[in-house]
Amino acid sequence: MSESAAIRVHRRFVMARRVKVLASAAAKLIPINVRNILDVGAGTGELASALQHLRKELVFSGVDVLVREKTLIPIESYDGLHLPFSDKSIDAVMLIDVLHHCEEPLLVLQECIRVARKGVLIKDHVSESRWQHCVLAFMDWIGNRAHKVALPNNYWSNQQWQNAMLLSGAKIVKKIDILPLYPVALAWLFGGRLHNFWWIETKDMESNRD
Predict the structure, then answer these.
(1) pLDDT in single tens digits along all 210 residues of the chain
(2) Which residue among 22, 99, 119, 187 has the highest number of C-beta atoms inside a 10 angstrom radius?
(3) Could you tell me which residues are beta bridge partners of residue 93?
(4) What are phi and psi of 153, to 5 degrees?
(5) What's domain 3-202's architecture?
(6) Which residues does the UniProt record annotate as the domain Methyltransferase type (predicted)?
(7) How far is CA 34 from CA 13, 58, 66, in A?
(8) Where are the domains of the chain?
């Protein structure tokens, strides 16, 4: 299969389903007291738009290092590390399959925690073996190569995720670790527990739950 054909197949059979599943999961994880959300690494804003249809009270804006010509939410350019917002100035930040694309994922996570008042929504991968790393790298290549997205393949193990939370002063408050992102024929290889969704908070954020 050529690269362009693989991209078309991925878009038709994977991306539409992915957006629907992730929006549904996110709608369950985001607390009811959240209103404004910053989507970091927003892409086209497709997921934010789908989520807004499920949670109409939510208002989204986004930042990305590569701002695309057509987006579904307002998206501004940023340097990929420093968010141009003051401390605790936004209800929530969401990072959907973003951190493993970052050269400094821990610093990006901590920057998102800095600006979030109530919590941070994270969807990312967990890799516990060389095989899982290769599977995830292939998935990212298919899904992102055409958009010139950086692919450093910084996939963390469960222990690395725990260490990142500890270093950031955060904890996982809610999680979904089984996401039906793929049809049955593909789920055996690309699904399982490679994908995790978390709502995280710090002690400061806990005091802002009301």
Answers:
(1) 444 544 455 455 567 788 999 999 999 999 999 999 999 999 999 999 999 999 999 999 999 999 999 999 999 999 999 999 999 999 999 999 999 999 999 999 999 999 999 999 999 999 999 998 998 898 888 777 666 778 899 999 999 999 999 999 999 999 998 888 766 556 556 657 788 999 999 988 987 876
(2) 119
(3) 38, 120
(4) 55, 50
(5) 3-Layer(aba) Sandwich (3.40)
(6) 38-119
(7) 32, 7, 27
(8) 3-202
Assigned token pair, 31: 């607390």
Please tell me the distance from the alpha carbon of residue 122 to that of residue 132, in angstroms, as a whole number. Answer: 20
* Adjacent-strand bridge partners of 176: 197
